[in-house]
Amino acid sequence: MVSKAVAKYVHALHQKKYRLRHGAFLVEGGKSVQELLSSALLTERLFVTAEFAAKISPLPPQIPVEVVSAEELTRLGTLATNQTALAVARLPQEPPLPTAPGLLLALDEVRDPGNLGTLIRLADWYGLPGVVCSDTCADPWSPKTVAATMGSFTRVPVWQRDLPQWLAALPPGTPIYGADLHGDNVHRLQLQPQGVLVMGSESHGLTPAVEQCLTQRLHIPGRGQAESLNVAISAAILLDNFFRAG
């Protein structure tokens, strides 16, 4: 049985204020936990079912491990059911923002953790140097966001910034792209994967202060009647156009 003190600590990490206070976050599910254990991120504590422990044996000797039932594991975490593993990991230190040429993904008020996690996963797929989130985005380290990255949280640096201020301070001449219904048809452009691609929330688009920083607006042409695209789908289409020639 997990002690009451440990259970209380794990439950506290369901909330952002306690994640920040303790400098830790939760990783749930076998795949995500295995990604964590094979990464450079620090694992503080591990909870596993006996069945899962047998699959990843030997367990890491330097990490406290508790073998628990699936019911207890589910009670500790946020998933509807969890029959594999849950880990407490240390929040990583933000690395310096890259200065070399490349394409960064910036997110403006993307408040759905599932979308945020998928966007981090997209950044991993296309090999982007990282993701810059406005301070009004969902928490990159919430359990739902981490789960939606499908392990990419271990590989993609995430920075949280005052987005208009950060964009305005970029070196002169840095291309800053943004999705816009009245922008240039992305299929007719030859885009280079350099600069910043900014994606906004599905319901409101880019905030005015961020929109003012754009150097080019990009439009994804459609033929049907859908009012809009999911932000992660839009980002995937745009990113593919940046890397098409490469």
TrEMBL record:
Q: Which domain of life is it from?
A: Bacteria
Q: Which GO terms describe its molecular function?
A: methyltransferase activity
A Gene Ontology biological process annotation? methylation
Presence of keyword Glycoprotein: no
The answer, when asked if Ligase is one of the entry's keywords, is: no
Q: Which SMART domains match?
A: SpoU_sub_bind (SM00967)
Segments forming domain RNA 2-O ribose methyltransferase substrate binding: 26-95
A Pfam entry, by short name: MRM3-like_sub_bind
Q: Which InterPro entries match?
A: Alpha/beta_knot_MTases, MRM3-like_sub_bind, Ribosomal_eL30-like_sf, rRNA_Methyltransferase, SpoU_MeTrfase, SpoU_subst-bd, tRNA_m1G_MTases_N
- First and last residue of the signal peptide: none
Say which family it is in. Answer: Belongs to the class IV-like SAM-binding methyltransferase superfamily. RNA methyltransferase TrmH family.
Which protein, by its recorded name, is this? RNA methyltransferase
Which species? Answer: Hymenobacter citatus
What's the source species' lineage?
Bacteria, Pseudomonadati, Bacteroidota, Cytophagia, Cytophagales
